Each structure stands twice: as structure tokens, then as C-alpha cells.
Amino acid sequence: MDTIEQHVVKIVAEVFTVNESLVTTSSRFYEDLGGDELSKVELLALLQDKYGVDIPDDETDNLRSVHDIIDYIKRAQHGP
């Protein structure tokens, strides 16, 4: 797992208050981690600050899993 993945998994575990060992890149925020919209908003705000990326509101519905977020951050940092 690369550094971005490790950091995102750690932050997801903290925000969703689950054991880090239960968070995988395929974990879905609502179905697998029991999160709600407020948790997701908090997560996205933390990740935007940490990685200096902007996640527009119209993109947030497409970010449903840990993998989706990692992929979005990598694309935002490195361009299309």
C-alpha cells in the first residue's frame, strides 16, 4: 500500500470510528463502514486540507468507497 492509501485508510478509520484493520480500499462508506453523510463530509474536508485538492460538491456523490477517494486524490494531484 502506498503512502496516500495508508493515510487515507487511517483517516477513514478515525472519522468512521472503526478499527483500521477493517478498512480496505474496497470499503464503502455507508454499506461497509456504517457511515453517514456527516461523516463523509468530515472525511472529505480533512482530505481536501491534507492533500490540497478541491472536491466539488457535484463530485462527492461519485465518491462511495476508499478506492474512489484515493483515485480522486491521485488524479487531482497528477492531472488527467
- Biggest sheet overview: none
Write the H/E string, N to C.
HHHH
CATH superfamily: ACP-like
How many separate domains? 1
Topology:
Layout: H1 3-15, H2 37-51, H3 57-60, H4 66-78
Helix pairs in contact: 1-2, 1-4
Mind explaining what this structure looks like?
The structure is a single chain. 56% of the residues lie in helices and 0% in strands. The protein is mostly helical and 80 residues long. The protein has a single domain, classed as ACP-like (Non-ribosomal Peptide Synthetase Peptidyl Carrier Protein, Chain A, Orthogonal Bundle). The longest helix is centred in the middle third of the chain and has 15 residues, at 37-51.
Descriptors:
about 80 residues; Non-ribosomal Peptide Synthetase Peptidyl Carrier Protein, Chain A
What is the compact description of this entry?
With 80 residues, the chain is mostly helical. It has four helices and no strands.
